[in-house]
Design brief:
heterodimer, A: 114 residues, mainly beta, Immunoglobulin-like, six-stranded mixed β-sheet, globular, B: 114 residues, seven-stranded mixed β-sheet
Amino acid sequence: AQSVTQLDSHVSVSEGTPVLLRCNYSSSYSPSLFWYVQHPNKGLQLLLKYTSAATLVKGINGFEAEFKKSETSFHLTKPSAHMSDAAEYFCVVTKPSGTYKYIFGTGTRLKVLA
Amino acid sequence: EAGVVQSPRYKIIEKKQPVAFWCNPISGHNTLYWYLQNLGQGPELLIRYENEEAVDDSQLPKDRFSAERLKGVDSTLKIQPAELGDSAVYLCASSLGTSSETQYFGPGTRLLVL
């Protein structure tokens, strides 16, 4: 069985400071992992994905995530937050092949303070 | 390239009324998904289509929910009759097929049942 846990339901940072959104996963397979962002009244947009290639994955808008198998983690980071980063972020785990059932975390709402 | 299109964006109905949501996936995407997203939670899969075939509908409440994708392109999700607890966002997503993992999401339909 697979599951994903987003450790913080809300994160607040000041503009220009680093962002860290935490995600831990559980999987009996070598997983594929994704981060999606959802702005208010918008659909989910893919930020980045890990599919067993490089463990450090770079995504859009300056975000990156590192796959750490020993810690079963896939934390999302950004060096400097921008006001436009304020949104809901979802970590997703799935199998690397076969049927693609996404298992979503409960989400982390990021607030960026001016 | 146009993204996943959903309509309507918002719908308010009274309980026991029927409601239908429409989704047009990205051109060429054979796989289509319907998700339910309750407030403060991650999306949960309702049904997945491979072309016109529903290959995973285990989470679809079949007593009141139905879906179709007759020509393997656009899809309709219906609720009849709607209940208060159906108030949520209904998301549609699509992907190229079984060899592609990334799902692309539409903006969703926000349903309010009074």
